[in-house]
């Protein structure tokens, strides 16, 4: 039977490891953050401990039950929880990484509950490295593919997105993808709302950016433009 000290150690360690992954998600403002990952990891750890030690003497001929049977339900159960963090916006799917982090937190909790401390610790480090460091590598690879990120904030009036697309087409800029995010509705302004647009674009070699900026700032409702993390237009002024 497991001792009280060992039980406390496993649960607290699971909370710490899950909290590390959750903290990274919280910092990046993801749907499931610090508390969610701790709860998932600690809950998984407790279920694993219960599977191993909670049914001793209740199995055939006084033996234990089947530890893997109860723990296996954690894997499928976390799948439903992770699905709640996945959102589809048009052709874009968001939240897959957070769903995967919840799933791996469940696995870490199961490993801690079973006493595989080294495996749980190494898995946590690999997960943190993947979440924190590989995102930078992905952005660099995207830049090598010559796709630029154009973020535009403005008033979501009818025709706003179309006018921006027309402006980019005028300068022979190809649009790879668009991500649209809305802030809130202002009831006293004819249902206008703030809109955040992220364009992933391929830019021609010979592009007069200043001419493009001048064209963009004439679009009604446009507030700011950020090109590859550099603000180029703000409050109708070219910076």
Automatic annotation (TrEMBL):
Membrane association type: Multi-pass membrane protein
The UniProt family comment states:
Belongs to the MgtC/SapB family.
- Can you say where in the cell this protein is located? Cell membrane
Alphabetized Pfam families for the sequence: MgtC
Q: Does the keyword Metal-binding apply?
A: no
Q: What PANTHER family does this protein map onto?
A: MAGNESIUM TRANSPORTER YHID-RELATED, PROTEIN MGTC
Q: Which organism is it from?
A: Clostridium aceticum
Keywords on record: Cell membrane, Membrane, Transmembrane, Transmembrane helix
The molecule here is called MgtC/SapB transporter
A GO CC term attached to the entry: plasma membrane
Domain of life, source organism:
Bacteria
């Amino acid at each position: 039977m497991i001792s009280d000290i060992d039980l406390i150690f496993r649960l607290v360690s699971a909370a710490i490891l899950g909290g590390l992954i959750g903290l990274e998600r919280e910092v990046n403002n993801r749907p499931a953050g610090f508390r969610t990952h701790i709860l998932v990891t600690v809950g998984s750890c407790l279920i694993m401990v219960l599977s191993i030690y909670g049914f001793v003497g209740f199995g055939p001929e006084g033996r234990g039950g089947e530890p893997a049977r109860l723990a296996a339900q954690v894997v499928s159960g976390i799948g439903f929880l992770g699905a709640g963090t996945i959102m589809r916006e048009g052709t874009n799917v968001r939240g897959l990484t957070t769903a995967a982090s919840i799933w791996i937190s469940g696995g870490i909790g199961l490993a801690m509950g079973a006493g595989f401390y080294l495996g749980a610790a190494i898995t946590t480090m690999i997960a943190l490295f993947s979440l924190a460091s590989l995102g930078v590598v992905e952005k660099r690879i995207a830049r090598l593919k010559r796709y630029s990120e154009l973020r535009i904030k403005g008033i979501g009036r009818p025709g706003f997105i179309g006018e921006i697309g027309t402006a980019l087409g005028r300068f022979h800029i190809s649009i790879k993808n668009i991500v649209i995010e809305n802030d809130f509705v202002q009831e006293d302004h004819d249902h206008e709302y703030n809109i955040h647009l992220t364009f992933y674009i391929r830019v021609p070699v010979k592009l007069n950016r200043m001419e493009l900026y001048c064209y963009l700032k004439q679009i009604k409702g446009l507030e700011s433009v950020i090109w590859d993390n550099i603000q180029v237009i703000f409050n109708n002024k070219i910076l």
